[in-house]
Structures are given as structure tokens and as C-alpha cells.
């Protein structure tokens, strides 16, 4: 879809900080607040803006440490629907956080979150492996998140500049 | 024999030099908690990682000795290519480019290489605080030429011409300007060039903010017809490439000037730091971040200028750099009073315009090289402060 320059600017701004109000964004891109609101609604309706979420480091919250795994899944694609049908069967599960079709040694990359390692083991053995077109799975547990979606976790971003300079 | 008071040993030139007016605000702000500073004259971006990594690699490989006086030849070649690609300038990397310790040292050796005792240099104000003292140190006489808010701080050729005497040697200009953010268009540069040619003057052009130009294509002074041989071009990596602490700048000038400046440079500095030169090489080779940073500043500029106007402080839209220079005349306060009270009452640090020259009185410099979060809070506080007056 071809977007206008202002629409692209709005996307770039919101992607960095979705808390900025239409009023502030309007000033940043030189439009009125009304025009900006309209463009944002348009982008939402077109599902280009899909969601406004917050990046949270759950590891820091007691009782919410959780476990994340990336699962390489080999599947047998079906005539007519290819990989789409099996991908949909997989992504409908709530514990599945992302599903990508991959090039290379396996077909689908599935990211799943659970409270414990057992939750994930159960999901893989009971739900995922038993799907008809799934040929094999390889599960990798994530040990530590350093950077996620462009955000560095535990990053000290204190301003190191002197307060006033020429 | 008994020693005289220590003060009496000092150079008269240095004794007579006023300390920068910025110092006072630094001392005030540095000791306060919770201050939002719009007083910072440098990017809020940390140097991009690829550039820092290139420096680390150079250290690992043991590149820790001197370079040629003029700087690494590869770097001068890259600077030459960059100046051609971006600004259509042609400089011979072998003889017309010198890598310096920041643009500041570049300005210093430029003045020391062209000034004879008593020569006058016209300094377009408001401007960066170093120009006049460096002219004085070189034995010359700085002559202030004011520009005015009503004219968006553009150089007024008629006023400029009035200050020319038989002793005038050069015109010092900076575009985009610190502190006003004003960018001179091709036509406006041509008007200055006309005067330089008519009175046979040199131009020292500080173009350190050239990468941060938001509206039109940037036009560089030496690209104006007949100006290459009359211009000493000063630039560097500090602002556009977010490399202030690396202290790396450069000079491009006709070989006659470059040779003279290289003499001063080799005796006073030897060469710019080697590791910083390797970093700069990478900065020029992979410069995608420059575009990202420019866009980011541009949006913050739009935001802050509109917010200042809404707060009741008239502010023209600056074409470049990362400074807004609003008028505070409507408040009836002087620049220093305004800045001091704003700091004490609302904990926002700005720089009073008069420290950049007398024609900066009635204005304050607000740097928008800060996060949107900080800028939004600062604008709220400034609005509240102006309403309280």
C-alpha cells in the first residue's frame, strides 16, 4: 500500500513511542491535530497500525518469570493452501506468541511462552507434534533476553552530557 | 628577588579575555536536582556503534602511533569524496585537507595563519562563543556585526558592508548557525560572497552543522562561484555524526592556506588522535544513521518551535542545527534574568542569548537535542513560567 509522507512519519514516530498524543505528533509533523487524528484512524482501519503494546521485562516481576521457547517445526504443506492452513492451526493457540514461515532447514518458527518448562513440553508433545502435518519439532529454550524488538533490556541510558555547553 | 603576584605574570591578552557567559549557567544548573537541560550544545545520540566499534578495532590492531600531520591519507580521501558528493566541492586530499582536533582547533589555526597584528575579522553575531577570543589570541581584532530576529538572523549585506575598513581581513560566518539555527540560502551566501570579492576579503565558513539542514539542499560557501580560493571551510564530525567527544574536525582550503595552516598545526598539535581518525573513517563509510538523526531532530524542531510560540515566546522556524532561539522580549525580562529565573523556578536550563553576542539579548537558546519526553515536560514548564510573569 502506498502511503503519503505524513502517514509514514506518523508510523515512524508511533513505532518509537506509542504514548505520544495526536496533539504532539501533529506539532512534530506540521499538521493540525484533527488532520493527524484522521490519518491515525485511517492507518488503524487499514490494519497498518495493528496494535499499541508495551515492552515489559517480566523477568523482573516476581511470579511472572515465565519461560520462552523457539520451536523449529517441519511440516508437510498441503496442496492449495500451502503452509497457511497449518500456520493458522498453530497461531490460534494463546500460548503461541509468534509464527514465521522460514527459508532453510525447517518451515515454521514458533515462539511460545509458558509459566514453566513443563507447560512448554506439554504443549509441544500434546498439541503441536500431534497435528497431522507436523513432521518434526526442535525446541530451543531462551535463557536470557538481551535485546527484543530493537529494545535493549537492562540498558542504562542516563544522559552523560554536561548540563550546559556552548 | 621576591616573586611578584602570580597574576602579574599572566599574558595581558588572556587577562582581558572575558570568561564565557555559559560557565555561570553551567555552575548553577550542575548543582541542582531534577533539571531538564535545553542548554546542551551537542547531540543526545551516542555515537553509532559501528563507529565506536571501528575505533575499538583500530586499538586492537595496534594503530596507536602518530598519523601524518594532516591526518590519515585514507581519511582525507574520504573527506574529499564526501565534500564532493554532498556539497559539490573539490578539494585535493593530498594538499587541501587537514584533519584537526575538532572544528574549534580548525578555527584556531585558520585565524593564526591569516591574521597579522591588528587585522580585523568581521564576526556575524549571535554566534558560537569561541570566534572572537580566537581572533584576539591570534593578534587580530574581532568586529561584531549584528543580525536581527526581525530578519531571522540572516546576514544583512548593507550592515556588513558598513563595518569594512582598510584593516578588514576576513568574514567569519556559521551556517546553520549556533545559536539561532538560521541557514543562509544560496542567494544570501552570494550576497556575502559579493562583498568578500568587492573588498578582497577571505571568508572563514564554519559549516559544522551542515548535515543538520532541514528544508532545502544545503549550499556550502566554497561552492559559490569564485569563492573556493577565498574560503577556509571548517567542518567536522561532532554534530551531524554525533561525535563531539572524539574531537575530530577538518579544514578544507586552497593549498596556499592549507600549507600555512599545516605549519601551525604540526607545531602545536602534531596530528589529530589516531583512534578518532579511524572512527571517522567508518562514520563516512557507513553513514545511514546520519539520516535517521536528521529526521529525528527535524520532528523535535517542529514540535519545540510550535510549542514555544504557543507558550507566548515568538520563535522563527530555524532551518538547521538543533537550536530554537525564541524571543523573550514580550516578558520584559533580560535574557539572563529570564534564564536564571526559569532555572530556579521551573528547573529548566536554557542559555541566555546575550552570551552569543549583544544582538542575542532578548533571546534564549533552547537546544532540542533531548528526548521528546524531556521536551514535552520542558515546554509545559516554560509555558507555566511565562504565564506566571
TrEMBL record, chain A:
Residues 3-65 form the HTH asnC-type domain. One of its GO terms (molecular function) is sequence-specific DNA binding. It comes from the Bacteria. SMART domains: HTH_ASNC. Keywords: DNA-binding, Transcription, Transcription regulation. It holds the Pfam family HTH_24. The keyword Chloroplast does not apply. The keyword Transcription applies. PANTHER family: HTH-TYPE TRANSCRIPTIONAL REGULATOR PTR2 (PTHR43413:SF7), TRANSCRIPTIONAL REGULATOR, ASNC FAMILY (PTHR43413). This is AsnC family transcriptional regulator.
Automatic annotation (TrEMBL), chain B:
CDD domains: AAT_like. Keywords: Aminotransferase, Pyridoxal phosphate, Transferase. Residues 34-382 form the Aminotransferase class I/classII large domain. One of its GO terms (molecular function) is transaminase activity. Its cofactor is pyridoxal 5'-phosphate. InterPro entries: Aminotransferase_I/II_large, AspAT/PAT-like, NHTrfase_class1_PyrdxlP-BS, PyrdxlP-dep_Trfase, PyrdxlP-dep_Trfase_major, PyrdxlP-dep_Trfase_small. Its EC number is 2.6.1.-. PROSITE patterns: AA_TRANSFER_CLASS_1. PANTHER family: ASPARTATE AMINOTRANSFERASE, ASPARTATE AMINOTRANSFERASE-RELATED. Belongs to the class-I pyridoxal-phosphate-dependent aminotransferase family. NCBIfam families: PRK07682.1. This is Aminotransferase. It comes from Aeribacillus composti.
